[in-house]
Batch of 4 targets.
Target 1
Amino acid sequence: MSEEILQRQNEIAKLIERHSDQDGVYKTAIPSLFIIHRSNVTEPVYRVYKPCLCFIAQGSKEILLAQERYEYGPADYLISSMNLPVIGRVIKASSDAPYVSFKLEFTERQILEVLNESEIQITPKENAKRAMFVGQIELPILDAILRLARLLDNPQDIPFLAPVYTREILYRLLQGQYGVALAQIAMEGSSTYRISDAIEQIINDCDKPLRIEELAELASMSISSFHRHFKEVTAMSPIQFQKQLRLQEARRLLLSESADAADVAFRVGYESASQFSREYSRMFGSPPRADIKRLKEKYDQRLHVR
């Protein structure tokens, strides 16, 4: 890693630490920009990633997408180009050298605007690409990230400059090694673009029965072609994708509402409480009641320590 890159990473790490006085995820004054601070390795966290760029200034993390594992640190960046249910865990952090990172969410429309207004030439690809990838950080990308991060120290400049620097980051990413894969989400005609509509419908109707015929029609594909392209993009089948969404939502409801497990099972779309309990245990390691009890006890301990 070059000295120039190391210097910029150190500046970003110090900047994030200044704006996050303790562990947590912080929404900043910059639209769609979050900073994360962790002083210890973490348990797996289950969530849906929106389209985003993730950059780690210090520490490292692993992301699981179905059975695929992505590990990245300061030498890399991670992109999720669609809404994807993932499992994330900080794997390198300490009180002396905390994990500090930067997540910038973006939209298909922003990608399309950069493509339309720049001279980047990308041809739509018929073959779908995985909607998550790790690339090696490059100096032009890092410079753009640093310019955006510096605005946290100059909030009066955010309204004017944040959109400019965000567009620059997307422009640099589109010029990088995974530019073609990122561009596909905004290019009509690509199979990746068509799969994105089906993903949105599954997310919006995750408590309803999955109708593969309707999803394939929405994507303008045959059923067999839809299954193949969906798995190429998400690393899982439509049913597996929906299951992860349902179980994540069920866990959120159980934690936030102290609701009955059987009631939550039906609310997220399960017809059988016993099937829900089995699949919940398989995903989270223990049945709903035991899992929620453990999480609440751990949260109470953390509050007590503070």
Note: The chain has a mean pLDDT of 94.
Target 2
Amino acid sequence: MALNPLANPKGVKRLCELCQKPAFIECLDCRVTYYCTKEHQGIDYRGIHKKICSLLIHLRAPAPFLNSGEDRQNRKDEMLLRQKQMIDLTRTTGQKLLFEGKHEQAVPAAMQALKFAIDVYGLSSIELVPSYLILGEASIGLGHLSHAEEYLSQAQWTVLKTPECSHDIQSRLHRNVGLLYAAKGDYPESLNQLGNDIYHSSEAFGTDDIRTSGGYFHMANVFFRLNKMKTADSLYKKVTTIWFTFLERIINVRTRTPVVPKGVGPVAEEPPMKEEVLDEAQEAEAIQVLNAIYDMREQQRATAQVMAKIAYAVTMLYTVLHDFSRANSFIYTAVKASKANPEDELSKKIAELARMLQTPYTSGIAMGMKI
């Protein structure tokens, strides 16, 4: 029988959003959520409630009486769409908070995602697994390894019962189990799980996709702990290259110069280049991963070429995120490191981006941002 961590105790109508204990404190804004203590209300508010407070009113308000069968079906369809949108929002927020190291705040976001997934898909659906994984990773971050084991065991059981489970979900499951083994100090099994993560992610997205890079990054961290620096270094370089290539594609689209038509007569328009985008969780992942590698390279006193590449990757990231103050702080390091080889291709790219970042106005125009 599937575990339901949100089960309603008999006879209790109002439960705490965070721990499911009887609740007596009401949110005075939405008036549809309740808490057992002010502390839990604060954790939930910081984690997810401030984002979804007004949205919950529509989802939890009593359904109006509708005479028409068509009206009832339309309302049912509308509610289903709202619930699915809420699942996406709360999952993404939970994952973002994990990448930011806010493990306690990630819990309420994951619990909300789990609630809505159960309502929409039922207790045994594979759609519950992403929420279990967020809860598992949050528990690892908080040092609650027994809780993490419970959530990940539930995720594993659901995956085993779903033969058509996607490579994407299997990848994320192996990644979280790998993190659990690493937290326990069982590094060989951690590497085994992370290897499976990379296999499934590569099957789903390719070996050089940003969604696969997380497996390489965590595997590098394990080798780093084992003091196998050569292997760790090669994996950190792989992660840097994946993000470098992805961010450079976005920069190239934003700074592309339109072709000026020549001569007389109609000119065939160039098809617009589609810009790749990052969701909130991917932005947080990029910030966490690239800054961690940058800090490590600084401590290692890495070669000028290695330092130039990671500094330029971080510069591109903050440029894409329109954080030009941070972009300028990293481009300085990239320019300084690139002076060792001023004529190579990377140095030229660094110099060009440095010129575009000279003033907020020119950087804003170059990156398609309204000033």
Note: Residues 1-9, 361-366 have pLDDT under 50 and may be disordered.
Target 3
Amino acid sequence: MTITITLFDKEGHIRNGQNDYDKVPTVMTKTEEDFAYLSTQELVYEEGDYFKIETDKENSFVVVRLDESLTETVVFIKDKQWLYEIPLNEKRVKARSDVAFKGHKHYISVRYAKDFEINQYMNLSRNSHDLNEESGAYPHAYANVETRNDATFFACNAIDGVYANNSHGAYPYQTWGINQQLDAEVTIDFGRKVAVDMMDVTLRCDFPHDSYWTQATVEFSDGSEEIIHLEKIHTPQNFTFTKRVVEWVKLKDLIQDTDESPFPALAQLDIYGTNCL
């Protein structure tokens, strides 16, 4: 099976890089069997640049790393392509490391996932590459509110694998923030059917600035619900439940502790299970 990765500018033109040794322009596109990468020693990303990852079949699992600052992640591409706008300026500075997508030297890789990577029991909600907007790759997190539409508080921050929760603000303390909205809810869309039976919830714990939720309802796409009770602790809180096959999971009906702070936030939401193939 072939896989293609291409770097485009905002006008839709393929970008060129260059290597120090031969000074020959490197066209930033490649199609290979099973595994493709792009590499260059001389290229600076510009506002509006985006990657296009193309597979030759629908419903593909790929292992991707689009920047050295991001952990390699298994993502699901439903419709043969994934458009990833490189998060620069505010979106990079606030919710990413200050070296993310920066500099001149870059290595980008995408490959089809191995069978054992697809079939294993795993954290199905982890996606270090997720963005605020739907991009064609899953899992994807979205919410009905994100504080001030600020990248520091986007829902995707809750599935990026960064657990730092003893402060608040920019990276590495990005979280899902609710702007004091009492009916706030966040959804993890898996993009396909998965079987889930366990969840870890990690709260932001910048006390006394923060408050926290004492209770939440977990809603599943099959119509079932579970109520969980949370504590004022900085470590991940584990919950198990009867296995069910779902396409999304929602955290809603968040009941806040009655302390003086109006600022609860979610650091990470980890949902465990297996893919249904």
Note: The first strand starts at residue 2 and ends at 8.
Target 4
Amino acid sequence: MAFTINPLANPKGVKKLCELCQKPAQLKCTQCLVTFYCDPDHQLTDWISIHEKVCSLLISIHAPAPFGTLQSDQDHHHKERVKKQEYLIEIAHLEAQRWVSKKRFQDVLPAALLFLRWAMQVYGTCAVELVPAYLLLAQANIGLGSLSQAHEYLSKAEWTVMKTPGCSHTVLHQLHRTLGRLHAAMGKYTSALTHFANDVYYASEMFGLDSTVTSGGYFLMADVFLKQNKSDVALSLYAEVASSWHSHLCKLMDDVSRSGTQPEECFDEAQCVEADQMLRCLLEFEEQCVKPRPDQSVVLAHSLAMLWLLCNNYTKALEYGKKAEVLIQGLSEQNRLRESIHNLLQHAEKHLE
């Protein structure tokens, strides 16, 4: 990363603005030459969050069309530029999601803002493609405790969805999930549950009632019920989440056994971190319960072992596999699960030899 302060960098009458705060800027990235900052701190923040990943791509996007070429060549240049812009949007989207999964909310903001800015350029200022960017910005601000700013982004997302007839169930479930998070953070538990119920409805319509995507809504609902001291309801929902994840991971492991290779559906870093956080939270909750449910603890430890095996982290897979092996000793009539745990341990140990 490099930067320079050059008062002559901005031609007279052309105002350069900071990439992060939109204040007047005089620092310029000396690699792409098109990104400006008001101070070194903002440049470093942007570099860590997203700019390192897209700096060279920005150079390509801003390259002018060859002068004096045929119209067909100019059209081709324009199409290629749009493809690069869409790729830039995709990278910014994935990076923002990755930072959210790691709960590094300050790092979410630059990536999500870049995602939003370029989505506006490519799709227009009222397009439904902007909604995921608004939701990521809202999640980051909820995590940072800036609830009024989160509400502002969610209002924009709601307005965009309202103006888009036939909006996909995927967008609707994501919108209601984020609204639920905001209302829960504000202590408005009744309205939070309403939004999470809508989240579950739209997610189940899109992905199925037993999918891991839908189970995320159950997990968030359970957290609200716990805050309302309704532990029985929360326990029931947690069991549903554990069952969904265990079934999903067992299916992927079966695919591995049959093919001898990694399954077609694999976890990216953000998905792995998010699943790990959820399953560990459930396992820790079970271990701290006044009335322990060893069968649930076994399922969760086994799920974590399978998750890490599928993410090629054999050390963690072995750790949770051994935990599941210990937990299942006190249970009867679990022969199939016992065999699955044994096979997983053999698989993990083989890769660590």
Note: The longest helix spans residues 71-101.
